[in-house]
Amino acid sequence: MQLFAVLLFGFCQLALAKTVVYDWNIGWVSVAPDGFVRPAIGINGQWPCPQVDVDLGDRVIVNVYNGLGNQSTSIHWHGFHQNGTSEMDGAVGFSQCPIPPGHSFTYDFNASQAGTYWYHSHDMGQYPDGLWGPLIVHDPNPPFHFDEEITLTLSDWYHEQMPDLIYTYQSAAGEAANGTPIPSGGALMNSGKDVKIYVKPNKTYLVHVICPANYPGHAWFFDQHQMTTVEVDGVYVEPVNVNAGLNGTMKTRVAPGQRMGVLINTKNDTSTNYAILDIMDVNQLFINNGIVPPPSDYNTNVTGYLIYNDSAPLPPTPVLYSLDDSEFFDDLDYVPLDREPVLEPVDHQIILNTNSANISGISRFVINNSTYLEQNVPSLYTAGTVGDNYSSNPLVYGHVNPFVVKHNEVVEIIINNLNTNLHPWHLHGHQFQVLERTQPKGGSWPGTYGNYSKYPARRDTIMLENEGYAVIRFRADNPDKSPLSKRRSMGKLT
Ligand SMILES: [Cu+2]
Questions:
Q1: CA of 427 to the centre of ligand 1 (A)
Q2: 78 Cα–ligand 1 center, Å
Q3: Do domains 148-329 and 348-486 have the same CATH topology?
Q4: Which residue from 38, 138, 145, 237 has the least number of CB within 10 angstroms?
Q5: Distance from Cα 426 to the centre of ligand 1, integer Å
Q6: What's the 212 CA to ligand 1 centre distance in angstroms?
Q7: What is the distance of C-alpha 439 from the center of its chain?
Q8: Which class in CATH covers the domain with range 148-329?
Q9: What ipTM does the predicted assembly reach?
Q10: pLDDT reported for residue 321
Q11: Torsion angles phi and psi, residue 69, rounded to 5
Q12: What CATH fold (topology level) applies to the domain 348-486?
């Protein structure tokens, strides 16, 4: 009987899976989310780019035509492991060549993970010019109840286009003139300001929170609504009320690239509307860059509204007085619902000392004193063409800080952030367990372990504190080589 049930389940999965096909023309559109008109990169003439909704098990085919005219492009499916389809990962220089203007590329992969993801250009630091969107994989049997779904994206916005910003970030003249530019358009919520999200009373909403930010992390909350996290970066977690601490006022935050699934219960009473506050990380934007106090005329906040009643007044913006670490739920406290035990023993340890360095007058980020230079031949092509004798030799991959690991090894990565600012890290192709992460100025890894959970938090993107370290582990179960990419932070594209 048990065997029969398993077979039947397998059959149902097959029967329900469908193929979803999108035809996308990537092109420039004129937008003004904060009132300032500028070109942005949209899809089929639309910006913000569309949300992709698929069901678990679907085959997803996206025919991408690059209609930009003046720039190459690609699409990365952030958080998707692409196990068996690494060539669909969309990371230029790693898994594919850039799609030139006037050319097409077809992405074809399976949505084999449920939860909250996003897609974005993975070419030339291009996505903050607009080429990103939510990617939600619906689970037919989620381990929690909800009635409705909402998506909430938290990002930063610039009046300058990325090629100009990159020049500022990464040229001696540009750096001298402007250093690290702060987001001139401030923060955006769902790609706008004062966004209204309409809700019904007495419902449970599953809120897909995505941080497609360019530079700073974000802190956010629904005013006077308790938030229960049920998913983090596509990993179901034991439901936890993240506001419970500090007498119900604890806040939560997301780093660039991170996502959360959060449940909120709407109120009975529809006479009042409530604010949704998002604030960009003041420490990251100003304080850790030596700009103390932060400029009083720069608004780090954006407000949205949960609308119960369109004819009721909008509430005043709540004030967040501090961004002290103790005000926030620690994402290491999430317990994966599957209670995957800590991976051990470690087969392969990698220690990354990361910092910025001045190379020929340009500030670049370095790993173990070596910067990343994008290769003309994508690393995956190199791995597939040099032959077995050479593919394990890091030298064949060029200036990309390669570490070659064996299939199914338990890999531990120690990341020492020697830099004076926070930095998010994202691993393609895997989720990693986070055993430890220090507070700001927690120092480098001392060579011994502190206390860590038997069932560590697991995710695909983590924020490292300034002058601190993290210990992460994963099983190298995705046989094509996966890059640990340093997400852009402080605007350095390394
Ligand atoms: Cu990714």
A1: 7
A2: 4
A3: yes
A4: 145
A5: 6
A6: 11
A7: 21
A8: mainly beta
A9: 0.95
A10: 57
A11: 85, -45
A12: Immunoglobulin-like (2.60.40)
